[in-house]
């Protein structure tokens, strides 16, 4: 069961170079070393995301295609040890920071749609206005007839 090995955050953070690059996305650990040169978004972005601890936000922000998501399983090497019991105290502290940051980000992401929802309606307002004017004109002309 090598695929589902649990890694602590501090252990994963040791692998953030061009020659050895691991990523945490949705609490899964991926070894993308061999994928670095193939990544359409470039290798730098992956190495940088790897060093930051949790790459979930970066991955989601890009809006990766389903092709990208299906490719991920090929690089899966394990899962993130959420409790970080096997990690050091520093690792556990870092892990709680990541959780706190994720919570903050979730609230930010959740807030976005409320303003975006109005903007989504905006393109419909102009055609609606044209229809209303056309109907108004038609009604006025018919009323004006003796
Ligand atoms: C195992 C993990 C990953 C896989 C398999 C993957 C795969 C891909 C693929 C196939 C594309 C082409 C566009 C698409 O199909 O969506 C892409 C684009 C991209 N990826 Fe990733 N990616 C991974 C992780 C990440 C991470 C962690 C980041 C950033 C933190 C990232 C940033 C980008 C960027 C910036 C692009 C270019 C988007 C564009 O040109 O419009 N990727 N990736």
TrEMBL record:
Entry's transmembrane regions: 121-141
A Pfam family it matches: Cyt-b5
Xref: InterPro entries: Cyt_B5-like_heme/steroid-bd, Cyt_B5-like_heme/steroid_sf, Cyt_B5_heme-BS, Cytochrome_b5
Polar residues composition bias: residue spans: 83-97
Residue ranges of the region described as Disordered: 83-102
UniProt keyword terms in alphabetical order: Heme, Iron, Membrane, Metal-binding, Transmembrane, Transmembrane helix
A single GO cellular-component term on record: membrane
Protein name as annotated: Cytochrome b5 heme-binding domain-containing protein
Organism this protein belongs to: Tetracentron sinense (Spur-leaf)
